[in-house]
Amino acid sequence: MSQPKPQLGGSEFLEDVLRKVKEAVEITGYDSSYYEVLRYPKVQLTVSIPVRMRDGSIRTFIGYRVQHSNARGPYKGGIRYYPTTDLDEVTALAMLMTYKCAVVDLPYGGAKGGVACNPKELTRDELERLTRRYTYMIYDIIGPYKDIPAPDVYTDAQVMAWIMDTYSQLAGRQTPEVVTGKPVALGGSEGREEATGLGTAIGLREAAKALNMGIKGLRVAVEGFGNVGSYAAMYLHEWGAKVVAVSDSKGGVYNPEGLNVPKLIEHKKRTGTVLGFEGAKEITDEELLHLDVDALVPAAVEGTINARTVHDVKAKIVSEGANGPVTSDADRVLSEKGVFVVPDILANAGGVTVSYFEWVQNLKREKWTKEEVLAKMEAKLVKAFHDVLNTSRKYAVSSRMGAMCLAVERVCEAIKLLNIWP
Ligand code: NAD
Closest Cα partner for 400 from 346, 349, 352, 353? Predict the structure, then answer.
């Protein structure tokens, strides 16, 4: 499961995304009419979802599907189930998907979906009924060549299986390619579980290379030890980096000599927390952020590196496994300190990249091995990293703005070629 609500409220979050896009359009020299196209999503659908609850009563939930741009290909983006999800938040996230897919050069546009609900309070049957009714309500605008949903906050492979089945029943044919992030038994891809964390680790490794630091012996602290953080830590450990600290929502552990990551993963599986790991000192999450390390991997929730916590950050590289872990004001401070940030739309794009491979495998009715999938993903991410680096050098901007400029260039180029019809 993923993170709670962005620290910014829906509309503030949307304004922040739009500000960055506008700046990138200006920097890349496209005229303001491109921003006029990009500032609005193409489609915003709001639906009501009546669900029969366990006590026989009916409760109506509100759901959204927002499609921002399909200039580069069918819309692609996750669906989140979260109590405070609203239209502005889903819109901002749909926009970010457009740019994330463009940075990694996937043939997709950007979309996002959401249902305002608290899945923790719903039974499995209620969740299934909600999911199937929501799918029915958005059926007309999704599809393998139109818009391909995926999991996001508090939705998982099971939810994707229900969406696929509902869509297939309505379409009258099995359509695994309508969603990604499915269980492997139903056409999900090998490697999806590792993909995002591996991508974050690759981003960090490439940044270290670019700074002539190398990965061997690099001292790294990883905030968040869930799906993304634990796989990032595992690969970094395998490549010879020294993962000296990790944390989860209960606190962190630190060993200046380096933690044994495979054993720590076992420990977390067994006890549900990283705390109590043999030979490690317990620290707070904030202490972790301020350790004297070469690199930080924030892979927990958004906004943990903020105006309050940023000043004591000593790392030279930050690879953003989480979405939006650095607030805008903290970002300016990191930039002044000369910290190399691998921005989220690049550093956590491994997940959507393997989702793309899942879609391709489904369309071709093929099954690739985990090794094949992860090798293809690595090639894409390494190329994207260097494309971002070159773009930030070309425009003399931060790597975060470089990633946005690269994405905006790719999207604007597509819009230019398509032209506005009629
Ligand atoms: P997860 O739920 O598996 O793990 C989150 C981890 O963060 C947990 O270990 C949790 O205990 C920890 N955590 C929560 N609050 C914390 C805090 N304040 N301090 C320290 N640790 C804290 O989620 P995930 O799938 O690993 O996602 C993590 C982030 O990566 C989210 O921002 C998510 O949106 C982003 N992301 C995930 C994927 C993916 O494929 N899983 C893809 C793109 C982006």
Answer: 346
